[in-house]
Amino acid sequence: MGSQSQPLHFVMIPLMCPGHIIPMIDMAKLLAQHHVIVTIVITPRNTVRFGAAINRAIESGLPIRLLQLRFPSAEAGLPEGCESVDELPSYNLNVNFMSATRMLQEPVEKFLGETSPAPSCILSDKHVFWTAKTAERFQIPWIIFDGMSCFTQLCTEMLSASKVHETVSESELFVVPGLPDRIEFTRAQLPGLFNPGSIPSSVNIIREQIRATEVGAYGVVINSFEELEKSYVDEYKKLRRDKVWCVGPLSLCNKDSLDKAQRGNSATNDQDRCLSWLDIQKPGSVIYACLGSLSSLSRGQLIELALGLEASGNPFVWAVRSRSKQEEIERWIVEDGYEERIRGRGLLIRGWAPQVLILSHFAIGGFLTHCGWNSTIEGICAGVPLITWPLFAEQFFNEKLVVQVAGTGVSVGSKIAVQLGEEEKAGVNVKRDDVKSAIKCIMSVEEEGENRRRNARELAEKAAKAVEDGGSSFLNMTLLVEDIMKQTNDQRLRS
């Protein structure tokens, strides 16, 4: 029995991007709370950006380690110091970024061969697909950490198998076959995986490699909870030989205000100003608007958002963030007198916003979101209805889950997925009146609005229970650890 006393050691390898790193850090904390040694592979600049949250966890006594590796930016043709997807000056450099990520394989394997205790498994982002070969080389399980819901996974699988989207025009609605609910999309709303002509061939090749590799994973860890999408969890498990562990919402591992504030980048100086402003607002009266760290809407589209928020008549907090249009929108804000006009009723945050902290504030009554999965599930945890404005990737899938399945959201009316780097060509997809109408709808005191708020509150309660001792996600985390323990012991007996 002596071999069983050796602790498990999970090596976690995220894609270097805030939306992928942050939930991985949360996952590391939860694994460590289950007495698993965790090593997080990270780069120097990302250590600076996200180190506060990790260091607090380490200082609390959790067995978390950092493997800091130099990111080969220059060797891959990237600007020196560019170590994260959200820092890329151009979408066209995504292929270079993936090349740099692949160069981490050699130093990671050197570490795996030398570290003690020996690694029990690799838990990696599916985009870091070379880790499949590494896990095979070290004869340990390779588990995918997937930042999407089971609903999205199932939509993806059903579309890939049926190819129903290939039989319709771009704007024609079609039903995704094989789902528990009747779910409709147009082809224009689908991720680039299903619209290969809309993205560069070099990116398509990488996506095909990821898709081909992930099929061979030992299992999948999902940042969701069974009570949110039970029928979709059950169906997805059938496709993955039951090796699916829903362990979320991961953001709920951050219990106190400092953990919530430090989750992600260090917050800007606007944080205290924002929270003080929220403190004097009426409960449930404020709209929080944030369209994610990767969004780069056109100048015209950002202006329509701004004017829609203003026209709604509701108090609001807007996290003004645009990868490529920040200077342009800031110039418009000054020239138009926008910030002066909304003073007292609206608040602008520049840079990184402590989203979990803001969403948990009593004053927030609605969340206008791009439907990235992290933001979606953070909104669900906060118990606030969502105004959905999907932009790209799987975000239209997330919108359907929120609006149609969960009944906690209202669509702003976005009709097309805009590929990263193509935002300027897309122009204005959503008008100010669309924004105003969606806000009015979400804040309505009529029966439909009250039902959405009740659904949101009930779902938040279920999310909180899921991660507590005895909850579904807590149990799934325990089952994951037990599964890898069995695999580790079986491997020791064989060797």
TrEMBL record:
E.C. designation(s): 2.4.1.-
EC category name: transferase
Alphabetical list of PROSITE patterns matching this protein: UDPGT
Family matches, as SUPFAM superfamilies: UDP-Glycosyltransferase/glycogen phosphorylase (SSF53756)
Keyword Transferase tagged: yes
Gene Ontology annotations of biological process type: isoprenoid biosynthetic process
Entry keyword Ion transport: no
InterPro entries: UDP_glucos_trans, UDP_glycos_trans_CS
Molecular functions per Gene Ontology: UDP-glucosyltransferase activity
Keywords per UniProt: Glycosyltransferase, Isoprene biosynthesis, Transferase
Pathway(s) served: Secondary metabolite biosynthesis; terpenoid biosynthesis
Family from the record: Belongs to the UDP-glycosyltransferase family.
Name of the protein: Glycosyltransferase
Species in which this protein is naturally found: Daucus carota subsp. sativus (Carrot)
